[in-house]
Design a protein that fits this description.
By secondary structure, the protein is α/β, with parallel strands linked by helices. The chain has helices spanning 2-48, 69-92, 94-119, 132-146, 154-164, 175-197, 202-225, 240-253, 294-301, 324-329; strands at residues 370-374, 377-381, 390-393, 399-403, 409-416, 418-422, 428-434, 437-450, 456-468, 477-481, 484-490, 501-504, 509-514, 517-522. It is extended. Among the domains are: 69-250, Adenylate cyclase-associated CAP, N-terminal domain (Serine Threonine Protein Phosphatase 5, Tetratricopeptide repeat), CATH 1.25.40.330; 369-522, Pectate Lyase C-like (3 Solenoid), CATH 2.160.20.70. The N and C termini lie far apart (166 Å). The longest helix is centred in the first third of the chain and has 47 residues, at 2-48. Strands 1, 2, 3, 4, 5, 6, 7, 8, 9, 10, 11 and 12 form a twelve-stranded mixed β-sheet that branches. Helix 2 (69-92) runs antiparallel to helix 3 (94-119), helix 2 runs antiparallel to helix 7 and helix 3 runs antiparallel to helix 4 (132-146).
């Protein structure tokens, strides 16, 4: 029995050895055949030029929306007359070329504004973002003029600056007439250039004549498309700012696209994600505020008594008042700055730059004139040397603000609530009646005619004023402050043949103390 078991064990071991030997032979045969198999499998694919993936067909390009007729005509004006003017300016070169380029930018900005009006309804009030680019170009043109008054090309700069005001035509009821009137300001300086360079350099003559042509073409364009003023697409639900964003994003999409990758190449893998931010050190602040970051300084000041908790106690050996040797050497041993020290150079911010002084009124860029009713307020602004009378049909709940108008006549029909006037020169105003008061601030050569009733007149920093009163306004109360040269013309008494009498307002006051009380009296000069 035991012999049979030994025989079976021996047989089993031999069979296992035989199976192991066969497995080893098979493994050796596979290792020798694998390189050949790889080559034989890869070579046909490479020789056949089979691509691992095919590029999907590109989607069809959407057809762009055609421009409205007024945009097409304005583009034609820019490409022909404006571009011809700019090319002549570049031939002259220097600041003349820069100013001409700014004119092109102004027309392009106005083109964007006109396109907004074709897509959006009229905003109330008009958002200043719609005028940003136009104001930038206008400021560039005026800055070149104002900063180069001694230049031999000052007449060139002035002619261009006077004409650019005409681009504010969209505030006018008759834009074509407004632009034609602005040509007079251009010709005042432009004709000087024509006379000076007529026999010397014809290029300068062509430059000014090209500028004349730009505004003649603009006047014809406005007479064709905006005869009675600017129009908006009031049937649209799109706001003006949204339309502006769409136009600006559309112009960005119209930029040339980057070249496409070679056919068949797989797209590049996406970039790896950015590394995570370093862990914040809560014990000691790892970043110091920048020199101009005053918020960090104020935050430390707001800590109160705790602000000195980070200061290091100074050893007596480092105190100059207790060590004459340190004072003699005029040096103090260096120490590391405390993290919380306000005197640390790292924490000490730079002194703020001095504030920029505002430009004088004569050097500021001229803004387009404006007469507009917003809610219950009338705004009359930036009218200069206007020959026609500006009339306002006011109501009892409406107030009127007149600002920065020079040599202008304003007539207020009806009974308004109140009138406020500031920074005007040579303004004449005819008022029927007011509920409240008429206030004049920082104005010169001011004239007022009251036909009805005005309860109160306030004059503050007025130099030279004439007030004509009617019999109905004889009870007018006048308050003055820092005012000189003011005369009141009183009407003759009813039933008499007397003439109108003129009475100056007192300017000189005498003050003295009497019985412990300050007394002020008007100084009268007899004789």
């Amino acid at each position: 029995m035991a012999g049979n078991q030994m025989h079976n064990m021996t047989t089993l071991i031999k069979r296992l050895e035989a199976a192991t030997s066969r497995l080893e032979d098979m493994a050796m045969s596979f290792e020798g055949a694998s390189p050949t198999n790889h080559v034989s499998l890869a070579t046909p694919v490479q020789q056949a030029g089979i691509e691992p993936s095919t590029q999907p067909p590109s989607p069809p390009t959407p057809t762009p929306e055609p421009d409205p007729p007024q945009i097409e005509d304005f583009d034609a004006l820019i490409k022909s007359d404006v571009q011809a003017f700019v090319d002549l300016g570049k031939q002259i070169g220097g600041l003349v070329g820069e100013q001409a380029e700014a004119v092109l930018q102004a027309f392009q900005a106005e083109r964007t504004f006109i396109l907004v009006t074709t897509k959006a309804k009229r905003p109330e009030p008009l958002a200043p973002e719609l005028m940003t680019e136009l104001h930038k170009a206008s400021d560039t043109i005026n800055n070149i003029r104002e900063s180069n008054r001694t230049s031999p090309f000052f007449d060139h700069f002035s002619a261009i600056a006077e004409g650019i005001v005409a681009l504010g035509w969209f505030f006018e009821l008759k834009p074509a007439t407004f632009v034609s009137d602005m040509v007079g300001g251009i010709q005042y300086y432009g004709n000087k250039v024509l006379k000076q360079y007529k026999d010397k350099e014809p290029l300068h003559v062509q430059y000014i004549q090209a500028y004349y042509k730009v505004f003649k073409s603009l006047s014809a364009y406005l007479n064709n498309h905006y005869r009675t003023g600017l129009t908006w697409n009031n049937q649209s639900d799109l706001s003006a700012l949204d339309a502006l964003k769409q136009i600006q994003s559309g112009s960005a999409k119209a930029a040339p696209a980057a070249p496409a990758p070679a056919a068949g190449a797989p797209p590049p893998p996406p970039p790896p994600p950015p590394p995570p931010p370093p862990p914040a050190d809560l014990a000691v602040p790892s970043s110091q505020p920048k020199g101009g970051d005053m918020n960090a300084v104020f935050a430390q000041l707001n800590q109160g008594d705790a602000v000195t908790s980070g200061l290091r106690k100074v050893d007596k050996s480092q105190m100059t008042h207790k060590n004459p040797s340190l004072r003699a050497g005029s040096t103090v041993p260096e120490r590391s700055d405390s993290q919380g020290s306000l005197g640390s150079p790292v924490n000490r911010g730079k002194s703020p730059a001095p504030g920029k002084k505002p430009k004088p009124e004569s050097m500021r860029a001229k803004k387009p004139p404006r007469k507009e009713l917003e809610g219950s307020k009338w705004y009359v602004e930036h009218f200069d040397n206007v020959s026609d009378v500006i009339e306002i049909n006011a109501q009892q709940n409406q107030s009127i603000l007149i600002s920065r108008c020079n040599k202008t006549i304003v007539k207020v029909n009806g009974k308004a609530n109140a009138i406020s006037i500031d920074n005007c020169n040579g303004l004449s105003i005819i008022v029927e009646s007011l509920v409240s008061s008429l206030e004049v601030i920082k104005s010169t050569k001011f004239a007022l005619q009251v036909d009805g009733v005005v309860p109160t007149l306030l004059l503050d920093q007025v130099d030279g004023a004439t007030v004509y009163l009617s019999p109905a306004s004889i009870n007018l109360e006048i308050f003055t402050s820092k005012t000189t040269g003011t005369n009141i013309l009183l009407p003759p008494k009813e039933g008499t043949d007397d003439d109108t009498t003129e009475h100056p307002l007192p300017e000189q006051i005498k003050s003295y103390v009497k019985d412990g009380v300050l007394v002020s009296e008007i100084v009268e000069h007899a004789g």
